[in-house]
Amino acid sequence: MKQSNSINTVEDWTEKGYAFEKEGMFEKAVECYDKALEIDSNYAKAWNNKGTSLFGLRNFEEAIKCIDKALEIDPNYAEAWNNKGTCLFALRMFNEALKCFDKASEIDPEAPNVWLNKGNVLQNMGMYEQAIEAYTTALKLNPNLKWAWSSKGFTLHGIGNLNEAILCYDKALEIDPNLAGVLNNKGLALKDLGRLDEALECFKNVLDIEPSLVVAKVNREAVLEMIDKREKYRQK
Predict the structure, then answer these.
(1) Is the dihedral of CA 31, 34, 38, 44 positive or negative?
(2) pTM, whole model, 2 decimals?
(3) Which helix (H) or strand (E) segment is 33 a member of?
């Protein structure tokens, strides 16, 4: 965060607000963006960033109003279109969110997070093949985008492509081995394939990371029961 006591320009206040925002101090960030906008009410970045801080406070409707201000000033502000889409997605307004992500990707087709967000909304709309295409595009732009690997795996899992799903989960886990949710999903895919011992290992690893995760405990017990039945069957 900027240490100077002299904060006079719209850029200074916006920079200070963003520093607060990165620390999760959203209310202080909003105060700084308001100071910036007192100096220049046509500074699109301050309106956009105020919107993202309001999003952090879960004030989605007010966030959209701020981002719309940014877009009035700069209709080709790809990041603002992406942020508006994210707010609409949080409100489960999927069609409207998709239009925003489409606009953002039209302006800046090289932004991987836009394609990730587009994939997420398509997945929630049940448009699974299109979602997978969007995740694939995101990963071509940034192969280290762990949430794109995770979401692509989840979508493949949902349409029954279990082996491909596991490959995607593994890619996400290569990037971040402590993704408990991804490990849990990998365990479920392995269970569905009948690879029970590997599934059990996944659920044990999940609980090493998050010992209180109830869903992993339930899944571990279900697999243990399946293994027990398998062993009893083999002994007949």
Answers:
(1) positive
(2) 0.89
(3) helix 26-39
